[in-house]
Structure formats: C-alpha cells, structure tokens
Amino acid sequence: MNTISLSIEDLLNDTEYGLDLSLVAGRGGVGHRVFSSRIQKPGLALTGYTDHLHPDRVQVLGNTEISYLRQLHEELATIFVDKFCEYPISCIIVTKGLDPPQFLKDAAEREAIPLLVTPLQSSTFISLITKFLEERLLPTTHIHGVLVDVLGVGVLLLGKSGIGKSECALDLVIRGHRLVADDVVFVKKKMPAALVGQAAEAIQYHIEIRGLGVLNIKNLFGVSSIREKKIIEMVIELVEWDPQQEYDRLGLDDEVYTILDLELPYIKIPVRPGRNLTSIIEVAARNHLLKGMGYHSAREFQEKLLARMENRPLGDEVE
C-alpha cells in the first residue's frame, strides 16, 4: 500500500464536491502535496504563537482571521504573517469570498504557498473539503477476486484463477443476490474500521464466464442484480480439495483475513465435484448474520455436548 497524497492542483480542479476554489497567489506551490484529511484554522498562529501549527494540513482562514489581520497595524500583521509563512505550509484557503490582505498575498507569493479563495462559508467549506480529502486520501488496494452482496453481507470470494469464483457469483445472482465486482476488486479503507469494495469503471457490472465470455449482469438481470460498492464483511477462499489436508469440521475457531490492517472473518471452502458451493456460500452469509446477533452454532453445539458428557454417569450408555 502506497502513501496517498493530493496536489493543490487537484483541489483546484475539483468539480464533484463544489469546493469552488480559485488561486490568487503562490502559483509556484500548486505541486505541494496534501497527505492528511484534517484541516486547521491557524488562530493563534497568526499572533506569532506557532507551537501547535500543523503545516502539512490545509490552513483555512475565515472572516475572524481576516478581520483580525486587517485591524492590526500593517507592520505588525506583516511580521506575524511572514513568520506564519516561513513554515512549509501546503496551502492557505480564504473562505466567504474575502479578498486576502496584500501582505498575505505577498508572503504567499514569496514563499510559493498556494493562496486560494472560495465563496463558501467557513463551516460549509470545511465540511466539504473534509469529505473530499477523506474520500481521496483513503488507503486503497486491489485484490484479485469477486465481491458479491449475499443477504446484505459483503462476501469477498478468493481463489486461484479457474477455480469457479465467477461461476459461484453468477449462480448467486440467479438466486437473487447482487454482484459488486468480478476479477479485480478495488478496496478502500473507510475510517474508522470498514473496507469498501467496488469494481473498476471499465468492467463494472460485467462478469467473465469461461465458455460464454464477458456478460453484462445489469443488462441480463436488471439493476436489482448489481451494486456499485459494498462494505466487505467476510472473506471466503475457494481451494482445491486435498485428501491429505485436514479441514475444519466444527467451525469452533474463527479465522481472520487481513486487508489494509483490518481483520475480517475468513472461511476456507474446499472445492470438489458434487459440492454445491453456492448454497454453502449463502449459508455462510446467513451464519455470519447469526454470529453478529451473538449466536454461534458451533460453540452452542460444543457447550451442549460438554454439558451432556459432564452430567451423564460413566457407563450410562452401556446396557
């Protein structure tokens, strides 16, 4: 997983979130990178107290900050602003369409700090840019597999090529479940602890079935058969049946599969002729829902068995 960042130019080019930013100074710094989704209103940093300034964050100046700078004697305000701009600040954004003081423009131009303006109110802009940064700076990865929505549970199917992941997904769609992604699943980490999977735009709604080719599930089965994105809640790996391998027969031990540092419930299902994998996957999703409600079938069975063994006198089963 690579460290994700955005350039200030990415902020200027936004059309989806309505940030409505324009550059007024510091064009030489539009290549600066933003790594954090958190913003900062500098406040006391504009009085010369910079101990808690986070220059890596987007700095937002509203009506209070601009009014404060304007009511200061220009020489003193220039000293404070120059000290503020000595830090490697990613960018400064002035809200409410206010015209930044000339000494702020001069300092930003001199230090190559992008100075941007938006007509939006501070509260509105902070909400929008926080959502924008959180979405664009989320940790991401891509996984070779199939993601399906089974009874509302996001199930990620893994397994080597040709083992039958896509065929299982197609059968699940026929049963009324929904396809999210086939072949490549793009995963984003939503804070604080959720993984959202979706398909690449070029292959969205499509599934590849050997012998039939590429099928458009949306066109074949309708919009109720697909989802654009889904939170991944469990991982099922399909593996070739190995008679020498010992497989879990009770389900007492809950295994986990780690993606982007988050652990997900993990089940390994051996594949061999005669096994109805689609039914097994569907039941696994139902069992996952039961566990979420605090009901663990295997452990309840074990507890009943142990209780029966403890209560039955020795030799009671012999006549």
TrEMBL record:
Residues in coiled coil: none
Boundaries of every HPr kinase/phosphorylase C-terminal domain copy: 136-304
Region (Important for the catalytic mechanism of dephosphorylation) residue spans: 270-275
Molecular function GO labels: ATP binding; magnesium ion binding; phosphorelay sensor kinase activity; protein serine/threonine kinase activity; protein serine/threonine/tyrosine kinase activity
UniProt key word Transferase: yes
Enzyme Commission number(s): 2.7.11.-, 2.7.4.-
Region annotation (Important for the catalytic mechanism of both phosphorylation and dephosphorylation) ranges: 207-216
NCBIfam families: hpr-ser
Comment block on domains: The Walker A ATP-binding motif also binds Pi and PPi.
PANTHER family, per the entry: HPR KINASE_PHOSPHORYLASE, PROTEIN YJDM-RELATED
Role, per record: Catalyzes the ATP- as well as the pyrophosphate-dependent phosphorylation of a specific serine residue in HPr, a phosphocarrier protein of the phosphoenolpyruvate-dependent sugar phosphotransferase system (PTS). HprK/P also catalyzes the pyrophosphate-producing, inorganic phosphate-dependent dephosphorylation (phosphorolysis) of seryl-phosphorylated HPr (P-Ser-HPr).
Note: Both phosphorylation and phosphorolysis are carried out by the same active site and suggest a common mechanism for both reactions.
Subunit structure: Homohexamer.
Protein name as annotated: HPr kinase/phosphorylase
Source organism of the structure: Geobacter metallireducens (strain ATCC 53774 / DSM 7210 / GS-15)
Gene: hprK
